[in-house]
Write a structure and sequence with these properties.
The protein has a domain at about 95-280: MetI-like (MetI-like fold, Orthogonal Bundle), CATH 1.10.3720.10. The chain is built from 13 helices and no strands. It has helices at about 1-15, 20-30, 30-50, 50-55, 85-120, 125-140, 140-155, 155-185, 185-195, 200-205, 210-235, 245-255, 265-290. The radius of gyration is 24 Å and the shape is elongated. Residues about 1-15 have low confidence and may be disordered.
Length: about 300
C-alpha cells in the first residue's frame, strides 16, 4: 500500500511533458523583450489590416487650405505640405511597408534557402560557384545594389519588392549553407544515405527540417532590414510612387519642413523605427527560444 502511494506521489511530482513548439512558446513568453517585440509587430499588423477603418480621412485627398497644420483633435498627427492627414497616411503606409517586407523576405528566403541547401549538401564545384556568386553580391552595399536594380527596372512598388528580395538572397544562402554543412554530418543523415535514400528525400525530409531554426530567426530579423531598405528606396523616389502613402516617401516630403512642421517627419520616421525595433526584438527572442541548449 505504501509502495503504491510512493509511486503515485513520484508520478505526481514529475513535470508534464512539453512538446518542442510548446517549449519554444513558453521560453518566448518568458522573454520580456521578445514579448515587447511581438506586441509591436501585432500592433502594426492590426493597423495595417484595419487601416481603412481606423483612418479618419483619405490618405491621398489634398486640402491645400489645411497644409502643414500642427497636431490637433481634428488631425491627431497634423497635416503635410499638401494638406493630407498624416495619421491616415501613416496607417495606410503600414500596409504598404508590411506587404513589401513580407514579399521581399519570402523572395529572398525561397531562393536563398534553395541555393544554400544545394551548396552545403552537394559541396564541390556547386558550393564554389554558388558561394562565389553570393560573395560578389555581398561585396556591394545592400542599399546601393537595391538602387541599381530598381534603376535598371524602373521605379515602383513591385520593383522595390524584387530589388529588396534579391539583396537578401546571399544572406539566407550563407546562413542555410553553414547550417546544412553541420546537419548533413549527423548520424541520421548518414544512415539515410547508407540505406539508399535519394538526395532529394534526404534534403527535404531530414536536412532542411533540422535547419529551420536559424532560417526562422534570420527571416524575422530580415523583415526589419527589408522595411528599412524599402523606406530608403522610397525616400529616393524609387519606391512606391505618389500619391501612395509609403513611409520612406513621406520622409522625403517631410524633411524639407523639419523646422516649421516636424510632425510631417516625426510620425512616419517613428513608425519605421518602431516596426524595425519590434522585429529585431522578436528575432532576438526567437533566437534564444529556438536554441536547443535551452531545452
Amino acid at each position: 500500500m505504501s509502495l503504491a502511494r510512493t509511486k503515485s506521489l513520484e508520478e505526481f511530482e514529475q513535470p508534464p511533458e512539453v512538446s518542442y513548439l510548446g517549449g519554444v512558446w513558453r521560453r518566448l513568453r518568458q522573454n520580456n523583450l521578445a514579448r515587447v517585440g511581438l506586441s509591436i509587430v501585432v500592433f502594426f499588423v492590426l493597423i495595417a489590416v484595419f487601416a481603412s477603418v481606423l483612418s479618419p480621412y483619405s490618405p491621398i485627398d489634398q486640402t491645400l487650405v489645411d497644409r502643414l497644420k500642427p497636431p490637433s483633435s481634428e488631425h491627431p498627427f497634423g497635416t503635410d505640405n499638401l494638406g493630407r492627414d498624416v495619421m491616415s497616411r501613416v496607417l495606410y503606409g503600414a500596409r504598404i511597408s508590411l506587404v513589401v517586407g513580407v514579399t521581399s523576405v519570402l523572395l529572398g528566403l525561397v531562393f536563398g534557402t534553395a541555393l544554400g541547401l544545394a551548396s552545403g549538401y552537394f559541396g564541390g564545384w556547386t558550393d564554389s560557384v554558388t558561394m562565389r556568386g553570393m560573395d560578389i553580391m555581398l561585396a556591394f552595399p545592400a542599399t546601393l545594389l537595391a538602387i541599381a536594380i530598381v534603376a535598371a527596372r524602373g521605379p515602383g512598388l513591385t520593383n522595390t519588392m524584387v530589388a529588396v528580395g534579391i539583396v537578401q538572397i546571399p544572406i539566407y544562402a550563407r546562413i542555410v549553407r553553414g547550417t546544412v554543412l553541420s546537419v548533413k554530418q549527423r548520424e541520421y543523415v548518414t544512415a539515410v544515405q547508407a540505406l539508399g535514400g535519394g538526395h532529394i528525400r534526404s534534403m527535404a525530409r531530414h536536412v532542411l527540417p533540422n535547419s529551420l531554426s536559424p532560417i526562422i530567426v534570420a527571416a524575422t530579423l530580415g523583415f526589419g532590414t527589408a522595411v528599412i531598405e524599402a523606406a530608403a528606396l522610397g525616400f529616393l523616389g524609387l519606391g512606391a510612387q505618389p500619391p501612395d502613402p509609403e513611409w520612406g516617401a513621406m520622409l522625403s516630403d517631410g524633411y524639407r519642413y523639419l523646422v516649421n512642421a516636424p510632425w510631417a517627419l516625426f510620425f512616419p520616421g517613428g513608425a519605421i523605427m518602431l516596426t524595425v525595433l519590434g522585429f529585431n526584438l522578436l528575432g532576438d527572442g526567437l533566437r534564444d527560444a529556438l536554441d536547443p541548449r535551452t531545452l
